[in-house]
Amino acid sequence: MADGADARPHYAGHRERLRARFLNAPDALPDYELLELLLFRAVPRRDVKPLAKSLIAHFGGFSEVLNAEPARLKEVDGVSDGIITEFRIAREAGLRLARANVMRKEVLGSWDALLAYCAASMAHNTTEQFRILFLDRKNVLIADEIQQKGTVDHTPVYPREVVKRALELNASALILVHNHPSGDPTPSQADVEMTQRIAETAKPLGITLHDHLIIGKGRHTSFKSVGLI
Predict the structure, then answer these.
(1) If both were cysteines, with which of 35, 70, 90, 201 could 52 make a disulfide (CB 3.0 to 4.6 Å apart)?
(2) Are both 45 and 150 inside the same structural domain?
(3) Residues 185, 123 share a domain
(4) Per-residue pLDDT tens for 140-153?
């Protein structure tokens, strides 16, 4: 008769070894193995390596899986509501960590952290999202708000509403951020004109527009860096 260890499912030992490898060297794990660790919680009694590999193959990478819409995740055989919940928990945890690196800090001196947060928040969105970062007189980030959500290629933005909200928060400066779902962060003429209108509306009220960031997939455009502000 098999002893207790031999009677364990074949995947039990693999899970123990993978957890140990993660604790010893988390950066060394490929995307599919990191995904396996998340799947362990939602699928406690099955070998999840094939599912993890299928998800990576379908979406292209770990972050793409976590950012995928539930309907798209369910296109992969074996994805349950419990798995989707685990992925959303992991994504939200990552966003909150990234946000903590920029909130209540001097933004211009934490630029890389700000870009990382914006990319994590917006790079994989399937529709345009326009957010405003409100800064105080010392350029400390005091609020990060989504002002509008739009379609795959357009978000309506109203300069007076942007400036009104800045006054309500007693903000002295702004950074505008929006994403291009196409992945190409090249500014459109509409992006340029909208930015100019906001800058012109804000300036007489003592509110400075520091930059406008367009977030693409794996890259971004800074209006200030390319001379548009």
Answers:
(1) 35
(2) no
(3) yes
(4) 999 999 886 655 45
Write out pLDDT tens, residues 46-100.
Answer: 899 999 999 999 999 998 899 899 999 999 999 999 999 999 999 999 888 888 8
Q: In whole angstroms, give the CA distance from residue 95 to residue 121.
A: 7
Average pLDDT over residues 182-205: 93
Q: What is the DSSP string of the chain?
A: ---TTTTS-HHHHHHHHHHHHHHH-GGGS-HHHHHHHHHHHH-TTS--HHHHHHHHHHHSSHHHHHHS-HHHHTTSTT--HHHHHHHHHHHHHHHHHHHHTTTTSBGGGSHHHHHHHHHHHHTT-SS-EEEEEEE-TT-BEEEEEEEEE--SS-----HHHHHHHHHHTT-SEEEEEEE-TTS--PPPHHHHHHHHHHHHHHGGGT-EEEEEEEE-SS-EEETTTTT--
pTM, to two decimals: 0.77
Q: What residue type is assigned to position 9 of the chain? A: P
Domain enclosing residue 30, as ranges: 11-97
Question: CA–CA separation, 129 vs 126, rounded Å?
Answer: 9
**Which two structure tokens, joined as six digits, stand for 8?**
């364990």
Residues 134 and 48 in one domain: no
Structure tokens at 207: 């509110």
